[in-house]
């Protein structure tokens, strides 16, 4: 049994944490209630029925369930329209689909949050030599670095006054960098400033890992188009694949035509009998996000109380995504902690995590991922490059109880080495 393997001092510290963190947990519960209210209301307003779960094959024409699902996603994300499809396989796929639909030869896009995820480098054309990258197809790319974990407003406004930029992109989450994630308030502020000088530029937000963490989404504060994966927050740990693009109706039409074909757009696309999972995943998503956040807060608190520094966010900081970074000081700590997460995974718990090379990464990596859906990051997972300062990136946790057990065993692994 897992509880029997956990160090007694850690169990005592965890018990103490319940009272200390109770106000933070209550605020997370409040956000969950607000988001649950919005989602449940959208289900009721759109008259979701059992018939909407029907398996539609072939071309996928006249799928009323799919159409209702997309109206609900649009409502939840504060947008006019949405595209929610199993044919969108990942967050990276959703981002590439959107950018390639909206950007043509000679257009310029600017990342307003510095360098994007590593997985997007080749897609843009910053690395590799793909003939399908944006740069290979004549799209000009620029980026403006963040300043003190916030937008460089002066540089952004000066550049956009030139009126020759087609699209600006904001990556809400820190991803696998050391900068902090961007709150909805910060995103709203920069959107307001952009609109004061440029009405035409498309404002796109990569919303991965951030959905339902706050009570508003980027669409509620003026973003033109918002992109994400159903194997993260909005899939609720139930959707087995899929992604979404939500936003301005005309822009969604362009993205839909890129996914299918001109003249077809959203009308085509079989659901592979996944409507039930997509509806159910969205319905459960606020609770899944709530538990992931509580797991992250608990992890940060335990590490801070054990004397670890550079934990981000700190346990009492505002959060806008589900990612937690833990600086573990030594290679041994990093490996043992990651092994503990794998040991308490419901799937592949018997796999022993060891540093190993991974395609596309310049350093050996450790990765713990024992999820019901391969690659699902709303389920508890953790990974890190095996280099100083040995920072682990962790996210997810479908229930707080499972998350707590995993963290406590991971910490016990480290403590046994110290003892």
TrEMBL record:
> Where does the record locate the signal sequence feature?
none
Q: Which Pfam families did the record assign?
A: Met_gamma_lyase
Q: What is this protein called?
A: Methionine gamma-lyase family protein
- Organism for this UniProt entry: Amedibacillus dolichus
The record lists the lineage as: Bacteria, Bacillati, Bacillota, Erysipelotrichia, Erysipelotrichales
């Amino acid at each position: 049994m897992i509880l029997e393997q956990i160090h007694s001092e850690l169990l005592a510290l965890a018990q103490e944490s319940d009272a200390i963190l109770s106000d933070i947990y209550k605020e997370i519960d409040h956000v969950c209630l607000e988001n649950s209210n919005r989602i449940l209301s959208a289900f009721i307003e759109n008259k979701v029925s059992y018939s909407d779960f029907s398996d539609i094959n072939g071309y996928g024409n006249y799928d009323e369930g799919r159409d209702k699902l997309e109206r609900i996603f649009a409502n939840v994300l504060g947008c006019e329209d949405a595209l929610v499809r199993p044919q969108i396989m990942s967050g990276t796929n959703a981002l590439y689909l959107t950018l390639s639909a909206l950007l043509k030869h000679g257009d310029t896009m600017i990342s307003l949050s510095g360098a994007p995820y590593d997985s997007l480098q080749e897609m843009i054309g910053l690395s590799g030599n793909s003939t399908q990258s944006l740069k290979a197809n004549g799209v000009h790319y620029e980026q403006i670095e963040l300043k003190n974990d916030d937008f460089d407003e002066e540089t952004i406004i000066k550049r956009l006054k030139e009126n020759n930029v087609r699209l600006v992109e904001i990556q809400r989450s820190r991803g696998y960098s050391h900068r902090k994630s961007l709150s909805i308030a910060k995103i709203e502020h920069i959107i307001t400033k952009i609109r004061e000088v440029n009405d035409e530029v498309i404002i796109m937000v990569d919303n991965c890992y951030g959905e339902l963490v706050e009570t508003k989404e980027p669409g509620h504060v003026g973003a033109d188009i918002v992109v994400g994966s159903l194997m993260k927050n909005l899939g609720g740990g139930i959707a087995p694949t899929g992604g979404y693009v939500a936003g301005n109706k005309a822009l969604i039409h362009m993205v839909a035509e890129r996914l299918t074909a001109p003249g077809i757009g959203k009308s085509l696309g079989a659901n592979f009998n996944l409507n039930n999972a997509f509806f159910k995943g969205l319905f459960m998503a606020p609770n899944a996000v709530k538990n992931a956040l509580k797991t992250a807060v608990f992890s940060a608190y335990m590490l801070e109380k054990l004397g670890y520094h550079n934990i981000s966010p700190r346990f009492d900081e505002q959060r806008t995504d589900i990612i937690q970074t833990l600086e573990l000081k030594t290679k041994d700590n990093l490996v043992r902690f990651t092994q503990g997460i794998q040991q308490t995974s419901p799937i592949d718990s018997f796999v022993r995590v060891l540093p190993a090379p991974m395609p596309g990464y310049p350093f050996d990596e450790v990765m713990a991922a024992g999820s019901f859906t391969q690659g699902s990051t709303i389920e508890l997972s953790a990974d890190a490059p095996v280099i100083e300062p040995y920072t682990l990136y962790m996210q997810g946790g479908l229930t707080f109880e499972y998350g707590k057990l995993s963290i406590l065993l991971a910490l016990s692994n480290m403590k046994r080495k110290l003892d």
